[in-house]
Amino acid sequence: MKLNFIAGEWLAGGGTGDNINPSDTRDVIGSYTRATSAQAEMAIAAAHAAAPAWAAFPVQQRAEALEAVGIEILARRAELGDLLAREEGKTLAEAIGEVVRAGHIFKFFAGEVLRPGGELLSSVRPGMTVELTREPVGVVSIITPWNFPIAIPAWTIAPALAYGNTVVFKPADMVPGSAWALAEILSRAGLPAGAFNLVMGRARDIGDTLLNDARVAAVTFTGSDATGRKVAQACVGRKGPMAKFQLEMGGKNPLVVLDDADLDVAVNAAINGAFYGTGQRCTASSRLVVTQGIHDRFVSAMVDRLRGLVVGNARHSATHIGPVVDASQLAQDLTYIAIGKNEGACLAYGGEAFEVNAQGEPGHYLQPTLFTETNNAMRLNREEIFGPVASVIQVTDAEEALAVANDTEFGLSAGVCTTSLRHAAHFKRQLQAGMVMVNAPTAGVDPHVPFGGRKGSSHGSREQGRYAAEFYTTVKTAYVQP
Ligand code: ADP
C-alpha cells in the first residue's frame, strides 16, 4: 500500500482506495491510503512549522533541490508516463508528454528561485528610498483534479516551493499514482521535514480541513466550477484571516474556422483540440464555430478523420483516443449525448459507448462524438461536458463567429483558423479568453508562460511561468531612511 507523506514520515491513513485502470478495469494499479482529517491537520501543522526553515533555506540549495526533481522526472519519463496512461487513460504518447512537461516545469522553477529581484524606487520624501520585495505567502493547500495527474501538481507545487512556501498537496482521489510518485521524488530532494506534505484522500474527509485551517495562507484549486465556488466561499468565510485563492475551473472553448482557413490546419486543430486526451481537458475545443463557406467541407473532412481514429487501451501504440476516466464521467458524457439528440442536434459521428475494446479488455470506452446542426443556445454548447464530444455551430460570417465564440460564461481558451492577417489580428484582440490560439488547437500550452482564463473559467492571478509569482508571493514595500 502507498502511504501519505506528512512531516517527513510515510503514514497510513484511515482507509484505502484502489487505483483502477480505466482501459482495463480488471487491472488494479495499487492500493493507496486515505488521510484522515486529523492527518490533514498534522500536515498543515508540519507545513506551518517548516515555513520559516524553508523560507530561509539557502537559495542555491533550494534551486538544486527543484532541479534534481525535474531531472529525475525527465529521466523516468517512460515509466512515469506508463503509470499516468494506466491510471488516467490518456494515450502513452500524451502521458509521456505530460511527464516531460512536469519535468520542465520543475527545471524552470529551479531557475526562478535565483532569478527574481525586487525594485528600488525613489521616495517622494527626500533622502528616503522605497524597496519592493516578494516574500513567501506561507502554507499553501494544493488541490488538483484527475485529468492531468502530474502536470497540474507540478505547475502548482514547483512554484509554491520555488518562492519559499510550504505545501500540503491533495491530489484527486481517482488518480493517486502519479501524485504519489512525484511525492516520493520530492521526499528525497533534501527539503526540511514538513516543507512538502502529501495527503491523498477524499474531499469529504479532508477538504474542509485544507480550506478552513487558519494556518493555510493560500489555496490553489483546479477542478469543477461547483467545487471552485465552495473553495472560494470557504477561503473567504472561514474564521481568522481569509486565504488567498486561485481557481481554475471549466471551459467551453470555441475554435472558430473561417472561410479562408487552410482546411487541413483547421481539421488538425479541431481533432486534436476536441478529442485528444479523450476531450478531458479544460482547454478542449468543444464548440467548433464554422462559417458557411467552409462548413460542409470541414464537416466531411472531420468525419473522415474521425473514422480513422482508434479508440482503445491507452497503453497500446495503435490507440489515438483512450478511455473515459471512470464510469461516472462516462455516464455524464452519455447524458450530454442524449441531451444533444433531444435538442435536435445531428449526430454526425460516434455517440456509442462500448464496454470491451478490440482486445477484449473491459474499460470505459466511448467513440469520439461530433454533433452538427447545433446552435449556441443548446445545453450541448453551454455546459462543460468534459469528454470526447464536440459540436459544430454554423455561422454566416466572421462577425457572427466572433459573437458566438464569446457568447459563453467561460473564457479559458479560444482559437481561430484563418489565413488572413486581418482576421487573425481582430480575433486575437476580440476573443474573450485568457489564451488565444491562431491556427492551433485550443488545448496544448507551453510550460513557461501564463495559463488561465477569464469570466467563469478562472479566478485570481495566472498560473505558470513568471506570472505564478503573483499568487505564490506577497509583495512587501519597505521605506528606508538611512
Ligand atoms: P473533478 O473531480 O471533476 O476534477 P472536482 O471539483 O470534484 O472536479 O475535484 C477537484 C479536486 O477538488 C479533487 O482533488 C477533489 O477531491 C477536490 N474537492 C472536491 N470537493 C472539495 C471540497 N469541498 N473541498 C476541497 N476539495 C474538494
Describe this structure in words.
The chain has 482 residues and is an alpha/beta fold. Helices cover 39% and strands 23% of the residues. The protein is built from 15 helices and 22 strands. It has helices spanning 37-55, 59-75, 77-88, 92-114, 151-162, 176-187, 203-212, 225-237, 263-275, 292-307, 327-342, 379-382, 398-406, 421-430, 469-472; strands at 4-6, 9-11, 15-20, 28-34, 119-122, 129-136, 139-143, 166-170, 196-198, 216-222, 244-248, 253-257, 285-291, 346-349, 353-356, 362-366, 369-374, 389-395, 413-417, 435-438, 458-459, 473-480. A seven-stranded mixed sheet has the order 14-17-18-13-12-19-20, with helices on both faces. Strand 19 (413-417), helix 14 and strand 20 (435-438) form a beta-alpha-beta unit. Helix 1 packs parallel to helix 7, helix 2 (59-75) packs antiparallel against helix 4 and helix 3 (77-88) packs across helix 4. 53% of the residues are buried. The mean pLDDT is 98. The structure holds adenosine-5'-diphosphate. Adenosine-5'-diphosphate binds next to helix 7 and helix 8. Adenosine-5'-diphosphate is lined by residues 143-146, 170, 172-173, 203, 207, 210-211, 223-224, 227, 230-231.
